[in-house]
Amino acid sequence: MNGSEKLAIDQSPQNNSTQNNRRSHESAIAHVTGAAVYTDDQRLPTGMVSLYPVLSPHAHARILKVDGTTALALEGVLLVLTAADIPGKNDTGAIRADEPLLPTDEVSYWGQPVVWVVGETETAARLGAEQVQIEYEPLEAILSIEEAIAANQFHSTPDICHRGDPEAVFAQTDHILEGEVTMNGQDHFYLETQASWAIPDPEGNIQVYSSTQHPTATQQTVAQVLGWPDNRVVVTCLRMGGAFGGKESQANPLAAIAALAAIKTNCPARISFRRHHDMIITGKRHGFLGRYRVGCDRVGKLLALELSLYCDAGWSLDLSSPVLLRAMLHVDNAYY
Question: Residue 84: pLDDT above 70?
Fold first, then answer.
């Protein structure tokens, strides 16, 4: 039997059962052998610099003074990037312009990057970050959904979903239960932490390699921060070592600060988060609070539900509105 005859037999309906054919994932061999190349696995370009953040020790505080003099005196430290260095718009918000890349007057969450140190090596940048002196005036912080409700601090107005006449049904139910359900936030915990490289080209453009789920949004954010048109920024995602929603918008600030460092130094620049930085700095799957009143009949069939659903959006809106809306639309489970 020649090859063409065998191919014809294999493709016949009787023998082309997917149940009997074992097929590997297209990237399986590269992944298990370590041959797969992720953003920070590439061969380093000549002269690449690294960035390291200086994080806020307060959940809410006024910035009184930033002094990078001692850091800049260290061997290998090139720059201490602050909000004053941003040539374009100091914002990386995904839906609303409420997320400054670097704070100017106040910090809004514990672990927020206040400045970034640029060094010839990551070690130099880290040692420089340890020497940056920042003075703060601590301010009152809201640390829970319950505190935000009590203070009437919301990022948006309520969305309301309504079906039928719940009050009329409640009046006829056999049992009414009231209570609340809480769920803490969750880190996405992808295996590959957030990473971005930014490489200027001879034509005055910039090539960004980013572990991002949304290259177009990353491109637009970088261009906005630099004050450039979008077409001068090219964003490539080689592959992602997991994301699960955690790199839809959270990759954008890293790409933007790496690009800023590259433009300021005229050198390729990289950021690759250590695990603790990734978990501290980036947003999470939302914590939720649900306050409910539910009516059921004698056998437990749910007949009416009144539910107030709150999600912990943190310091900025980000993608919280669609996340909360999806939760609202799924909350009735299999009943509708």
Answer: yes
